Amino acid sequence: MKIIFYILTTVAIFSAQIATAQEEVNSAVSESFKQGFGIHAGASTGLGFSYRYFPEKWGIQVTGIPVFGGGSFFSSAGLSGLYKIKEHRRVDLFTYLGGHLIHERYKTNTSTWPPTEEPQIYKYNTLVAGLGAGVNIHLWEVLDLSVQIGYGAYNLTNSPRTNITGELGFYYRF
């Protein structure tokens, strides 16, 4: 009976030490990946290249891209605040509050040759704000897939309307 007691005690102590060591490894891994760079597409968080800084519970995300071509210009700029609710080895749960500014400028083409009038230049600015929740899925040690869903207010500068928003990002963590 004493041998069984000693074996169970040894196994329990050894298991506790392994669990403590695993927690230290998990915390070291999560502490080493505070930043991320990738691509992101979101109605209320921005479109384009994205940078995330997520040191502890609070984080920030900056997303944007300019697109030039044929006398037209499109730019997307997003800024989001992030709050981590729950951290896990494979998945993190978080909330976000995002703002997205879209700027568009283009010229109209004239239909006659030679042009009889000057082309018109049109400019549009659209502001979108949203609030929601998301998950960071750790695909590999340094790669994350971020899936977010929320509720947003579209076109705040002209004729506001609200709807469900969706956001998707792919990040390299460092």
Description of the molecule:
The protein has two domains: 1-32; 34-173, Porin. The chain is 18% helix and 60% strand. It has an eight-stranded antiparallel beta barrel with strand order 1-2-3-4-5-6-7-8. The protein is of the alpha+beta class and 174 residues long. The chain has one helix at residues 2-32; strands at residues 35-42, 46-53, 58-69, 72-87, 91-107, 121-138, 143-154, 161-173.
Task: Spell out the key features of this protein.
Porin, alpha+beta, 60% strand, 18% helix, 2 domains, elongated, eight-stranded antiparallel β-barrel, 174 residues
Number of E-type strands:
8
Largest sheet: 8 strands, antiparallel, barrel
Structural class, judged by helices and strands? Answer: alpha+beta
Q: Work out the strand percent.
A: over 45%
CATH class of the largest domain: Mainly Beta
One letter per element, helices H and strands E, the order comes to HEEEEEEEE
Helical proportion? Answer: 10-25%
CATH architecture label name of the largest domain: Beta Barrel
Q: What is the average of the pLDDT values?
A: 84
Give the distance, in angstroms, between the N- and C-terminal Cα atoms.
52 Å
| Molecular shape | elongated
CATH topology of the largest domain: Porin
Overall domain count: 2
Low-confidence stretches: 25-30
* Rg for CA atoms: 24 Å
